[in-house]
């Protein structure tokens, strides 16, 4: 899907500027105009542009000099030069300095639009390549276990649609990776994938981050800023930790989802956007709705297709594959010698509860590769890095102390009690969350608590 672009047009002829600006605006782009190279350099420092078109012959600084200065300053925006006094030497010099193309006046509007669309496509490909290089070495969706296969099948089913997806899971389970996978398997994969962590942005700045702002809209707004919705136009916007978005901001987000328009802070006109919004949270949105901390109407807008990511402790069959993947990745990223993990090391990793999930596993793998003396990481290395299991801890590594003695029935009952107490504490005694985590109906959970002599209300600490 095509994305609206922001173009900078530089020419000392007012009629040429007006004609070009009109043509690009009719094509769906946004155009900023200026009549000299010095002013253009100031605008490029203050604002973000997708493409620069500049005349060559202008009073004062010419277009060739502007091009050379921008490239020397590291500006990566594609630049096309235009001249009515073109010659071969000028064109060759421009291309050598880094111009994407060189056009002669008078300009054919049709040819110009095609050239600009090609230049924008090249610019986006270069941006994607930079992003891919930046992401090189980060972990991906890995695992052949049943839980991961179910998740991958759900992603493949929902990705080609325009359905809004709500990605649920504990911190560190890979919610952003799932969102990226959905984007990359969708019809929007050629456009941008933009992210915003709602919990990481101060409440007073989140509107500007989402919708952008005009110059002078508030103290510190020294230039116009395009928000995440505009940046994601034609592509996908991933709102992480949406459960932490301020309620006042939720109403404005709802309006954008309903109308497909944003308005910059300090702006006076709506801007049409075509964006697929994916959201994620580690919190229980249904509980937040009941607490009036999350708008019910927004909940129904974003909670169309929920995808739940399993925590690492529930997909330990993938532990060996994940560990090997991270070991190769970390070694390649740091230029280290590759190290294998012995079977006893993998078994030792299984005994840990992994509260930080896959993210924690990657960090532990890096630490082990750095600290292990031999060519292979052993169980002894793992024990030096991981904390010892707490008494009564639940995991694949064994039963808690209270469940290690007695008849089979007594041990099963003790084990069930420990599991329930651990989940109740983990989910702050929110019974809906506990029931979902254990795969039980709420009514069954209450009955099980009663059978085991657990009173959640009496155990809940007063706030």
Structure commentary:
The chain has helices at residues 14-26, 37-46, 63-72, 88-97, 109-135, 146-158, 175-184, 206-211, 228-231, 247-259, 285-290, 296-302, 319-334, 343-350, 357-371, 379-385, 408-426, 431-438, 442-451, 456-459; strands at 6-10, 30-34, 51-55, 79-83, 101-104, 165-168, 193-197, 212-213, 225-226, 236-240, 261-262, 271-272, 276-281, 305-308, 340-341, 376-377. It is an alpha/beta fold and 463 residues long. The protein has four domains: 6-135, Response regulator (Rossmann fold); 150-308, P-loop containing nucleotide triphosphate hydrolases (Rossmann fold), CATH 3.40.50.300; 312-385, Helicase, Ruva Protein, domain 3 (Orthogonal Bundle), CATH 1.10.8.60; 401-459, Arc Repressor Mutant, subunit A. The strands form five sheets. A five-stranded parallel sheet has the order 2-1-3-4-5, sandwiched between helices. Strands 7-10-13-6-14 form a five-stranded parallel sheet. A two-stranded antiparallel ribbon has the order 8-9. Helix 14 (343-350) packs parallel to helix 16 (379-385) and helix 18 packs across helix 19 (442-451). Helix content is 47%, strand content 13%. Helix 4 (88-97) links the parallel strand 4 (79-83) and strand 5. It is built from 20 helices and 16 strands. The model is unreliable at 133-139 and 390-404 (pLDDT under 50). The chain is elongated, with a radius of gyration of 28 Å.
Helix content: 40-55%
Count of folded domains: 4
Silhouette: elongated
Tally of separate helices = 20
Q: What assembly state would you assign to the polypeptide chains in this entry?
A: single chain
CATH superfamily of the largest domain: P-loop containing nucleotide triphosphate hydrolases
Instruction: Give the CATH architecture of the largest domain.
Output: 3-Layer(aba) Sandwich
- The average pLDDT value, as a whole number, equals 85
Distance from first to last alpha carbon: 50 Å
Strand content: 5-15%
């Amino acid at each position: 899907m095509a994305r609206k672009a922001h173009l900078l047009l530089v020419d000392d002829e007012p009629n040429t500027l007006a004609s070009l600006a009109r043509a690009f605006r009719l094509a769906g782009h946004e155009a900023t105009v200026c009549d000299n190279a010095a002013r253009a350099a100031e605008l490029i420092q203050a604002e973000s542009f997708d493409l620069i078109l500049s005349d060559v012959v202008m009073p004062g600084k010419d277009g060739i000099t502007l091009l050379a200065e921008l490239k020397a300053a590291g500006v990566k925006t594609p630049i096309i030069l235009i001249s009515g006094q073109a010659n071969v030497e000028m064109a060759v010099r421009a291309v050598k300095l880094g111009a994407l193309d060189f056009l002669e006046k008078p300009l054919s509007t049709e040819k110009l639009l095609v050239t600009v669309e090609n230049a924008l496509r090249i610019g986006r490909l270069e941006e994607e390549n930079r992003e891919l290089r930046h992401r090189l070495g980060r972990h991906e969706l890995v695992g052949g276990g049943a839980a991961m296969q179910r998740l991958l099948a759900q992603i493949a089913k929902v990705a080609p649609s325009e359905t809004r997806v709500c990605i649920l899971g504990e911190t560190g389970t890979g919610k952003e990776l799932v969102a990226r996978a959905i984007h990359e398997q969708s019809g929007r994969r050629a456009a941008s994938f933009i992210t915003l962590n709602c919990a990481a942005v101060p409440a007073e700045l989140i509107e500007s981050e989402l919708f952008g702002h005009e110059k002078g809209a508030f103290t510190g707004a020294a230039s116009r800023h395009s928000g995440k919705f505009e940046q994601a136009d034609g592509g996908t916007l991933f709102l992480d930790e949406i459960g932490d978005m301020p309620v006042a901001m939720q109403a404005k987000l709802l309006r954008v989802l309903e109308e497909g328009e944003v308005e910059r802070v300090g702006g006076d006109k709506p801007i049409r956007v075509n964006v697929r919004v994916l959201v994620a949270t580690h919190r229980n949105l249904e509980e937040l709705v009941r607490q009036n901390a999350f708008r019910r109407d927004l909940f129904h807008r974003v909670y169309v297709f929920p995808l739940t990511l399993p925590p690492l402790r529930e997909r330990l069959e993938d532990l060996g594959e994940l560990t090997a993947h991270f070991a190769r990745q970390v070694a390649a990223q740091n230029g280290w010698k590759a190290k294998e993990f012995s079977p006893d090391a993998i078994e030792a990793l299984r005994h840990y509860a992994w509260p930080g999930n896959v993210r924690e596993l990657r960090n532990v793998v890096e630490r082990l590769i750095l600290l292990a003396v031999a060519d292979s990481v052993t169980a002894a290395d793992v024990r030096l890095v991981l904390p010892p299991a707490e008494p009564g801890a639940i995991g694949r590594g064994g039963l808690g102390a209270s469940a290690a003695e007695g008849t089979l029935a007594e041990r099963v009952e003790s084990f069930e009690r420990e599991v329930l107490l651990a989940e109740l504490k983990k989910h702050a005694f929110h019974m809906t969350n506990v029931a979902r985590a254990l795969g039980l109906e709420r009514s069954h959970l209450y009955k099980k608590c009663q059978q085991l002599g657990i009173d959640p209300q009496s155990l809940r600490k007063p706030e």
